[in-house]
Design brief:
The complex is a heteropentamer of chains A (350), B (143), C (308), D (316) and E (653). With 143 residues, chain B is an alpha/beta fold. Chain B has four helices and four strands, in the order βαβαβαβα. The longest helix of chain B is centred in the middle third of the chain and has 18 residues. Helix content of chain D is 32%, strand content 15%. Chain D starts with a helix and ends in a 29-residue tail after the last helix. Classes of the chains: A alpha/beta (350), B alpha/beta (143), C alpha/beta (308), D alpha/beta (316), E alpha/beta (653). At the B-E interface, helix 1, strand 2, helix 2 and helix 3 of B face helix 4, helix 5, helix 6, helix 18 and helix 19 of E.
């Protein structure tokens, strides 16, 4: 039986150690009072009690990556005008396992896949990392502050994007392989047979689903009110308190906007890709000085629009939001995107 | 090897054009020998020295930073060094707080005629930085 | 409860040859409601030849006493003797240097941290108590006295160390004596050397210098000299007869501590002020005294006259 | 201080202003959110309690129309500093002051209840009672208040047009304000350096600290993102992150009003305010200056004395 | 970008301790460098030609010259590249001589350091932008502050050169110290006789507008365009009406006014004309002594004045003048004798200062030239002169030599003998300082022909003895102490900065030394310029000077003004602050810190509030740039990016 498995809680570390023989394993760990994905090493403590402050997105889609580096070479000492530019791209991404992210985090990666892989010009940097990474998600038993995954088509035990789903069944963890990669992982380590836990896990998962709040109808076909969406007054009302920072986007498992800059020193340099945020003024600032989205109202509208209108339009109705609630939880001004979408779906509510 | 005896360290100097840069010139004209670690950046006035230049230099490879301007009351622009004095004093205390030894940063006043004083400042400061050693684990130069 | 309180270091002279300085100062301070507290177990201030031989040892002698005061938690030590004063001030100054301080403290059982300021009693009386208070305490005015105020060579010197009054033309004692209602002469030799330094080694030179001071005082119209230094007092007072013999002069000029003059004005008895200890007898000059209230009246009358 | 009294004042000033900035309930019971009130109906939803943590004065410079703002004592220092620097037109602002005995750090409360979703919050005396699925927990506000409240010197706003409550005096000793800085300075140089490196390494450069900072006047022009001048790259190295935080600290020298917003909003829980507080302690020491206390003061970095009593020339 | 790099050998000055060829070779490796070479003397004509040729041949667009200090040759090379068609701000210099070659012996280390210096210059020059000067008109009027001999000379030379001159003198008459002197050394010319005609010229010159008894209230503006506010102090006499007849002075009953002109040697009247030759010859009332002001009744002068010029209600008046250049000739002051307590301060009437003695000697002085003791008006027979009374004395903060005292003491000793043939003068001196044409001969004459006894040593004490003053001093040549019984003692009190010199400097934005004397641009080569362009120095305000030096400086300053004004337009330095209005957030912190008030608030058409730089006022210090948090105001040629590029050229981990 390789599709499911069971591990008593005390064996979890052995499991991770076994995994880390063939791959770099990232797992959530406490860093002060916050939870971050850290490279797992022997004896290190895990922390699975709540979702990480920043999900695993930065492992597969790093905040800053060098796309290429370049050297200016003057090979002919007699002719300083002759400059050769040597370009280098480096790839040294090892096989990786992300352990213990939440189903919403995994779902976020699927949103990225559509943009970076499922196109005519796949992004080789992203694709390589995605291909080499196995995702072991951990189903939620109960929602956390701000969570609304079910409203956007996900769930506390949603399997989208995960290779393995793991459920806490009390005395241990029940594992289900969902993909070939997942099966391979479960195969690689000795595990008890999990069949007897399947039912219990199923029960836990469906109970969890009921606990999730529904700020707006789950039915994705329900359209947003275009009239309200276009109304400045509405946006002013709901986002005056926004302070235009990038906390929501940087923590968001589905936000993927980036910036590309060249950083050069005397005779060498790099082209780097870094996260960018549509909430920043610079994001749409044009060289002329003109900015099509000059105010936070416009920028916030874009953020909501992108997730709930433009992306679904382009990708077959898929909402670019996984309902993880981080943008709500960590917003300095407690702006609640679920509330805003709720208004847009049901203007009468307002 | 630096003149101080160990491997040369990277010391950046910001010198105001009117007094200290001239003082360094005077020291040169007088052939007052100095350690070679210092690299000088000319600025019009010590008031032009944004404390962040010092921070930038220390974060990106400098082992010590020296700022020198006209003596108080002698600023070519009347008041620039008064602002410098406040800002750099604030910075000095902040650096020490964030874990960069305040001895790596020195600001002082040297006039265009004080060649000897300049020699002393450079010699002493270089020595002081060498006593602390390198600030960063630097990669060896490729060539 | 006394209004003010100081640590007080009388010094060796005031225990012996110039007891009257100590006695009169204590009487005056009592009249001024100032409490003097002697540090328990005080010792030599170090102004002996020590300081010409070894600075550390000299400073240690002074610092030992300063440390006693420090332990009493008193910020200021006052001494009537300019010589002691200089010893303390110099120790304080030298001990600003950390390594010197270390050397000194290594010789002491109780280290001294340099927190005690030394001030002359003259300075305390002039600055802390003030002329107004002094004038308010005056009972009698001695009309006969014409005083030459004599400060001696080190009361105000070196100026960077003394930090009190003018080094060339001090005026603190002048002002105090004026506040007593005394007739103060314009005396050019206020800080001239009295010659005491050569008292034993070069007696002729000492007499020459002493003569000059006495002579100048007489020229200035004085019939007595007010002093603030036990060595000056002794020197000027003790040698008049001998000088008269050598030179055929006829000095008979009382040399009185300014504290004694203050005490007399405040109404203390000559006995309380140990006037008898002076060599040149001032009794004749002290005969005529007026109640201050009467002189005030006289002045008022003069004022009235002037304005009319 | 009752919310009713506050509502009365809001209703009174509302006709004269475009907006009254206050607080309302947020997405859950523990999160209070800023509230831009335009109508009397809005005013009904206004709340005031120990969860009203945000410094609403920070919104003022970006608003053009006449605005009323509700401020706690600490927040009022922001307004005083704006006045010092000429960043607001005082006549365009109505200040509703609230005497405040201390707010609650949401981060501390969540930690205290193991980050369980909050079902209900109640207040009683100086306590906050938190209900989660795991039961009720009672916390003394003093135990879960932000650090700034522990040494608060200005419980009553320094400037206000209306005061919703009776003024209260600080009971905290003034010398306690920088005790944490002094304590931190007992660490060795290396410890301090490692501490800041580890903390700033967590930074994701979301700029929440900057954008929440009431004194970060540059906002969209911040040199952390410009190429001209190009102070800093977008690389994710420790040095660049440190540089950003140094920029923030140096630009706030003598201006930081210690509202603690930078630290409160940080999603990575970085002690962002520490550097700024250190500078403030030095401003006090060097220039006897406390930011945001007297509208007539001049920020010390924008002025000088020919003779600086406390700055001695340093010997090598 | 095609940077050309020129490494100068400076003969062996640089090449001796720096491997210049290697520096050039390393420069060639740097991206952006299209050409690098080393040259024997880059500043020589062929050296400059080489740069020009290379610019053409190699199509270079930026130039780095690694040579001596830019303070030496930056301008030379700027002109060079300008001639070759480049903007002159496309030049950067690396100082590899003063800062490298001359201060280190290790050739290896020096070469590495020179490579870094060149790398920095290359990094910076690639960030340089072409800058263009703007020109502006000059207001060809000149302000002269101070009507002493230096100021008068400057004013007259400028006026004769055709310029309109505004001359401001704070006392009621021009002439300064020189007008008070009896004779001048070493020619024993009558001082007022030679100065008088100049004073008359100043009073009458149609190009000179004289403000006597006036002070500078405020100076605004910049070279070519200054606005000056002048405070005309109330004289209580309408000078339009006053004819200088002197009747008021004769009848004035307040006879005990302090006589400033005579340094208090004798009292004067409350209404007075300072001296017979005064220009302007007008009366003025001293309200500190006038009965009308003190007691509210008298009015004698008002009654007697034939033209009705007296006006007790007069108030200070502020007038504004606009000029294009300023000559500062505010002169010097004399040490307060009271500081010299060892000499009795001012307690002894028969111990006087040299300038007071000068008035006693003067035929138009209060004693009509009869030397008499102030105490009892008897003729002194033994006179002791004490030189360095305060000068060269660190303990009172005057470590310098006052320069002219040795000479005037010799003169006074000579004049004393002339006045009182049976007198004996003694001169205590530290050193006799008499460098000047005929000066040393003069001091010898005082000794040899006039019998003045010169005693080398300092005076330690002066005290009275009977009617005499005892001067006690050391005779260091004989190694003994001397005491001289003098009838009169004259102290050559130290020359110090004029009263209010520091405040004036602050108004002018010029610097002053620790003693309050103004600092010239260069002690050797720019002696009358200041570091503030448009402001020139003349006379003793820069340091103690005798008459010929002061006059020489007056003329020199005038020549500088005339040469400045020979142009119609001036070019402003384009290396000044510039605001990027897109980035500017209008916080106006720059406005608060600008030392020149060169920044003002501006509102864009969009309504956005921003900072704006007044180009002609900005002096280019860059304090604004380091104040601006958002980098919106950038000092051109020293922008953040330019300096950061230099930092990153040498700081790479």
């Amino acid at each position: 039986m390789a599709d499911t498995g069971f591990l008593p809680k005390e064996k979890l570390k052995d499991f991770l150690e076994a995994l880390s023989k063939d791959a770099v394993v990232y797992a959530p760990a406490l860093e002060g009072d916050i939870v971050l994905f850290k490279e797992y090493s022997q004896g290190k403590d895990l922390y699975l009690d709540r979702p990480a402050n920043l999900g695993p997105k930065s492992i597969i889609y790093p905040q800053c990556e060098t796309l290429l580096s370049f050297d200016f070479k003057k090979n002919d000492p007699e002719d300083p005008k002759k400059v050769d530019i040597e370009l280098k791209t480096e790839s040294n991404f090892a096989n990786t396992v992300v352990f213990g992210c939440r189903p919403c985090d995994a779902k976020g990666l699927v949103i990225y896949d559509k943009v970076f892989i499922d196109t005519d010009t796949a992004d080789p940097y992203y694709k390589e990392r995605r291909d080499k990474t196995t995702i072991i998600s951990f189903a939620c038993e109960a929602p956390f502050a701000g969570c609304f995954c079910t409203a956007v088509g996900g769930g506390p035990a949603d399997t989208t994007g995960s290779d393995v789903l793991m459920t806490d069944v009390g005395d241990g963890f029940f594992f289900e392989a969902l993909t070939e990669k997942g099966k391979a992982v479960l195969k690689s380590v000795p595990m008890q047979d999990g069949a007897s836990y399947k039912e219990k896990a199923q029960k836990i998962k469906s109970e969890a689903e009921k606990k999730i709040r529904n700020p707006f109808p789950k039915d994705a076909t329900e359209k947003l009110s275009q009239k309200l969406f276009d109304s400045d007054e509405f946006w002013e009302k709901v986002v005056s308190k926004c302070i235009s920072c990038g906390a929501c986007t940087y923590l968001c498992p589905t936000c993927y906007c980036f910036n590309i800059t060249d950083e050069k020193t005397k005779d060498k340099g790099e082209r780097i890709r870094t996260w960018d945020a549509c909430m920043f003024n610079h994001f749409t600032l044009e060289t002329s000085g003109h900015n099509p989205r000059p105010s936070k109202l416009k920028r916030f509208r874009n953020r909501v629009g992108h997730k709930f209108l433009y992306y679904p339009e382009k990708y077959n109705g898929v909402i670019a939001c996984c309902g993880c609630g981080r943008c709500i939880r960590y917003c300095p001004a407690s702006v609640d995107i679920s509330e805003i979408v709720g208004y847009l779906k049901d203007p009468k509510q307002k | 090897m630096s003149d101080v005896g160990t491997k040369e360290l990277r010391i950046v100097g910001f010198l105001c054009n009117w007094c200290s840069y001239g003082g360094a010139d005077t020291a040169g004209v007088g052939r007052f020998k100095q350690p070679t670690d210092l690299r000088i950046i000319r600025v019009p006035c010590s008031g032009r020295v944004d404390p962040l230049f010092v921070v930038r230099a220390l974060l990106t490879g400098a082992d010590g930073v020296l700022v020198s301007g006209c003596h108080p009351r002698d600023c070519h622009y009347s008041e620039g060094n008064y602002y410098a004095r406040r800002r750099l004093e604030m910075l000095r205390r902040l650096l020490q707080f964030m874990g960069i030894d305040e001895k790596r940063f020195h600001y002082t006043w040297v006039s265009a005629s004080e060649g000897q004083k300049w020699q002393q400042v450079v010699t002493d400061f270089t020595k002081q930085v060498h006593e602390l050693g390198p600030l960063h684990d630097k990669k060896e130069k490729a060539d | 409860m006394a209004e003010k309180k100081y640590a007080y270091y009388s010094g060796c002279s005031q225990e012996t040859s110039s007891k009257e300085y100590d006695i009169s100062l204590r009487a005056v301070m009592k009249a001024l409601d100032v409490e003097l507290v002697e540090p328990e177990g005080w010792s030599c201030c170090g102004s002996t030849p020590a300081h010409t031989v070894n600075h550390v040892l000299a400073a240690a002698l002074a610092a030992r006493n300063l440390a006693l005061v420090e332990k009493m938690n008193m910020p200021v030590l006052t001494t009537p003797c300019p010589s002691c004063l200089t010893a303390f001030k110099e120790a304080n100054h030298r001990m600003e240097n950390d390594s010197f301080k270390k050397d000194v403290n290594s010789l002491l059982d109780n280290p001294y941290n340099g927190t005690v300021d030394a001030k002359s009693s003259l300075q305390i009386i002039y600055e802390d108590i003030g002329l107004e208070t002094i004038a308010s305490k005056v009972k009698y005015v001695f009309t006969e006295l014409k005083v030459a105020p004599y400060y001696g060579c080190i009361m105000n010197r070196p100026p960077a160390l003394a930090k009190f009054d003018d080094p060339e033309n001090p005026i603190a004692m002048d002002k105090i004596l004026s506040a007593l209602g005394l007739n103060v002469c314009d005396f050019a030799f206020k800080t001239e050397c009295c010659g005491a330094g050569y008292g034993y080694t070069k007696k002729d030179m000492m007499k020459e210098l002493t003569y000059k001071v006495l002579d100048m005082a007489r020229d200035a119209g004085a019939n007595c000299i007010a002093v603030a230094c036990p060595v000056c007092q002794m020197n000027l007072d003790l040698n008049q007869k001998e000088i008269n013999k050598d030179r055929g002069s006829d000095f008979n000029m009382p040399v009185i501590y300014f504290t004694q003059l203050m005490g007399l004005a405040f109404g203390c008895s000559p006995k309380e002020l140990a006037i008898k200890k002076l060599i040149v007898n001032p009794d004749k000059l002290l005969k005529n005294r007026m109640l201050k209230s009467e002189t005030d009246k006289g002045q008022d009358k003069e004022k009235l006259k002037a304005s009319a | 201080m009752s919310t009713e009294k506050l509502k009365e004042i809001i209703l009174k000033v509302l006709p004269d202003v475009d907006t009254v900035i206050g607080w309302q309930e947020g997405f859950d019971k523990i999160h209070i959110t800023p509230f831009f009130m335009k109508s009397p109906e809005d005013a009904e939803k206004a709340v005031w309690n120990s969860l009203c943590v945000q410094n609403l004065a920070a919104y003022l410079p970006s608003l053009k129309k006449k605005t009323a703002v509700i401020v706690k004592g600490c927040d009022s220092r922001t307004i005083v500093q704006y006045m010092q620097e000429g960043l607001i037109d005082r006549s365009n602002v109505v200040i509703i002051g609230i005497p405040c005995t201390g707010v609650v750090s949401v981060k501390k409360v969540l930690k205290a209840v193991d980050y369980q979703p909050i079902e209900d919050v109640k207040f009683s005396d100086e306590k906050i009672i938190i209900k989660t699925s795991k039961g009720e927990k009672t916390l003394a506000i003093a135990d879960v208040c932000p650090d700034k409240c522990k040494t608060c010197q200005y419980p009553t706003p320094i400037v206000y047009d209306h005061l919703a409550g009776d003024p209260i005096e600080s009971t905290k000793p003034a010398e306690s304000v920088y005790e944490d800085i002094k304590e931190f300075e007992k660490k060795s140089l290396e410890e301090r350096r490692d501490y800041f490196k580890n903390e700033f390494d967590k930074c994701i450069r979301c700029y929440a600290c900057r954008n929440a900072c009431p004194m970060c006047v540059c906002q969209d022009s911040c040199i952390a993102e410009t190429r001209d001048p190009h102070w800093i790259t977008q690389k994710l190295s420790s040095e660049e992150k440190m540089m950003f935080h140094m920029i923030h600290a140096v630009h706030l020298a003598g201006r930081c009003v210690e509202c603690g917003e930078c630290e409160r909003v940080c999603p990575m829980d970085i002690p962002v305010a520490k550097l700024k507080k250190k500078i403030n302690s030095e401003m006090k020491e060097l220039f006897d200056y406390v930011p945001g206390v007297n509208p007539e003061d001049k920020p010390p970095m924008y002025t000088f004395n020919v003779e600086e009593a406390k700055i001695k020339e340093h010997k090598l | 970008m095609r940077v050309g790099v020129f490494i100068c050998h400076c003969g062996s000055n640089i090449a001796g301790t720096v491997d210049v060829a290697r520096v050039a070779a390393e420069a060639r490796k740097i991206p952006g460098v299209a050409f690098a070479t080393n040259y024997m003397y880059t500043c020589s004509e062929p050296g400059q030609d080489e740069i020009k040729a290379a610019i053409k041949r190699e199509n270079l667009d930026r130039i780095v010259v690694a040579a001596c200090s830019p303070r030496m040759h930056e301008n030379t090379f700027r002109k060079t590249i300008q001639k070759a068609g480049l903007n002159k701000y496309f030049l950067e210099m690396a100082n590899i001589r003063e800062h490298i070659a001359w201060i280190g012996n290790d050739k290896e280390l020096n070469t590495e350091k020179a490579i870094d210096a060149v790398s920095m210059a290359i990094a910076k020059v690639m960030q340089n932008k072409p800058l263009h000067a703007t020109s502006f008109k000059i207001n060809k009027r000149v302000l002269v502050i101070g009507g002493g001999v230096a100021g008068m000379q400057a004013a007259l030379d400028c006026a004769d050169g055709g310029l309109d001159v505004v001359l401001v003198e704070k006392s009621p008459a021009v002439g300064g110290i020189m007008a008070r002197l009896d004779k001048t050394f070493p020619t024993i010319d009558c001082s007022i006789c030679i100065l008088g005609p100049k004073m008359v010229d100043v009073g009458q010159h149609e190009k000179i507008k004289l403000f006597a008894y006036s002070e500078i209230e405020e100076i605004k503006g910049y070279i070519g365009n200054y606005q000056i506010k002048i405070r005309k102090k109330a004289t209580y006499v309408d000078w339009e009406k006053c004819t200088g007849c002197g009747l008021c002075m004769e009848k004035c009953p307040s006879k005990n006014s302090y006589d400033y002109f005579n340094f208090g040697v004798a009292p004067t009247k409350a209404i007075n004309i300072p001296f017979p030759q005064a220009i302007p010859k007008k009366a003025k009332i001293d309200p500190n002594y006038c009965r009308q002001f003190l007691k509210g009744k008298c009015g004698v002068c008002a009654k007697i004045c034939p033209t009705g010029a007296i006006n007790y209600e007069m108030k200070d008046e502020i007038v504004t003048e606009e000029v294009g250049a300023i000559v500062v000739a505010t002169g010097y002051g004399l040490l307060d004798q009271n500081i010299l307590t060892e000499y009795g301060g001012t307690r002894y009437p028969d111990v006087i200062s040299g300038i007071q003695y000068e008035r006693l000697l003067n035929a138009s002085g209060p004693t009509s030239g009869h030397i008499e003791r102030p105490s009892d008006h008897t003729e002194p027979k033994t006179i002791v002169f004490v030189s360095c009374a305060g000068s060269r004395d660190k303990s009172i903060g005057v470590p310098y030599c006052s320069g002219f005292c040795c000479m005037y003491i010799a003169k006074q000793a000579i004049l004393t003998k002339d006045h009182i043939p049976d007198s004996q003068s003694y001169v205590f001196y530290m050193d006799i300082r008499s460098p000047g044409k005929g000066y040393d001969e003069f001091t010898r004459r005082a000794q040899e022909e006039y019998g003045a006894q010169y005693i080398r040593g300092r005076v330690s004490k002066i005290y009275p003895k009977g009617k005499k003053m005892i001067v006690r001093g050391a005779d260091t040549l004989l190694g003994t102490q001397v005491e001289i019984e003098a009838d009169l003692v004259v102290l050559a009190t130290a020359a110090i900065a004029a009263e209010g010199a520091a405040e004036m400097a602050e108004k002018l934005h010029i610097s002053y030394d620790t003693f309050g004397f103004y600092v010239e641009s260069h002690p050797k080569l720019r002696p009358v310029e200041t570091n503030t362009s448009g402001v020139f120095l003349a006379g003793a305000c820069q340091g103690p000077k005798d008459i010929p030096s002061s006059v020489g400086q007056g003329s020199a300053a005038a020549a500088k003004v005339l040469s400045l004004f020979s142009r119609d337009m001036l070019e402003s330095d384009p290396a000044i602050a510039q605001v990027n209005t897109n980035a500017c957030v209008g916080c106006l912190k720059c406005l608060k810190t600008c030392p020149f008030q060169a920044i003002v608030e501006d509102t864009l058409r969009s309504g956005k509030k921003v900072a704006k730089v007044i180009e002609t006022v900005c002096a280019g210090c860059g304090v604004c740039t380091s104040t601006c948090p958002c980098g919106a105001i950038q000092l051109q040629h020293f922008t953040d990016n330019q300096l950061l590029s230099e930092v990153s050229a040498i700081c790479q981990m």
